[in-house]
Design a protein that fits this description.
Ribonuclease HI, Chain A; Nucleotidyltransferase, domain 5; 2 domains; five-stranded mixed sheet; three-stranded antiparallel sheet; 8 helices; 11 strands
Length: 229
């Protein structure tokens, strides 16, 4: 019998054959230097990215969140460190193990006013707190959409300016929308042809044409406090 249990971002699969139990743990691979840089969810892609590349830098992580954060960090922090050392850090101080927010990044926020049926959203520089972009009084929409649109706006902004940096959202629903490409529910109860509807369609089209894996991170209030903006 094959049973899958999902814990955080790791998938643990227990395969029972007779009296023997096999534990299969999914890993995520970060390639800092290679033919292709990024976060990969299988060894085959990682191997292809580093094979034949002189001075390749890469490492595996247990969770997607750890891998995504590591990708935007100095590889020297991770290369050469054992799992035991990482576990010891977690026990001593969870905040140290989790690290600090990536300073060169954008934090996104959004608000939906059900009384006026309008949305506002904006993005700020994580380090300075300065507003990078904002859009106000968008007609139509919903709460989830007001959180999604600034993330896509931020991704497009970074892409247009050739900046390699992550986008932060504190909304887990939006995080999973993007990582799993679940957008259909956002169209629910949107007035067809409204400004919000058009922006959502444009956002989904942009996401479908760009690889954003590893570019959107969750803001961890527990460790970092309130998100800037």
């Amino acid at each position: 019998m094959l049973v899958f249990t999902i814990l955080s971002n790791s998938v643990l699969a227990y395969l029972h054959i007779g009296s023997t139990n096999f534990l299969l743990t999914m890993k995520y691979y970060v390639v800092w230097k290679g033919h292709d840089k990024g976060v990969f969810d299988n060894w085959s892609q990682c191997s292809n990215s580093i094979k034949g590349y002189r001075g390749a830098l890469y490492k595996s992580f247990k969770t997607l969140a750890e891998a995504e954060y590591a990708f935007y960090s100095d590889p020297a922090i991770y290369i050469g460190k054992t799992t035991e050392e990482s576990e010891r850090l977690k026990k001593e101080d969870l905040s140290i193990a989790f690290g600090d927010p990536v300073p060169s990044s954008i934090c996104t926020r959004g608000l939906y006013d059900h009384k006026t049926n309008t949305m506002d959203y904006w993005g700020v520089d994580t380090y300075s707190g300065e507003v990078v972009f904002e859009k106000k009084k968008i007609k139509g929409g919903n709460r989830s959409l007001s959180r999604l649109l600034p993330v896509v706006h931020g991704l497009a902004h970074l892409k247009n300016h050739s900046i390699e940096a992550p986008i932060y959202t504190r909304n887990k629903q939006v995080y999973y929308y993007i990582h799993n490409q679940w957008y259909e529910s956002l169209f629910y109860k949107l007035d067809k042809g409204s400004e919000a509807d058009k922006l959502l369609q444009r956002a989904v089209l942009w996401l479908s044409n760009h690889d954003v894996k590893g570019s959107v991170l969750l803001w961890e209030d527990l460790y970092w406090g309130n998100m800037p903006g």
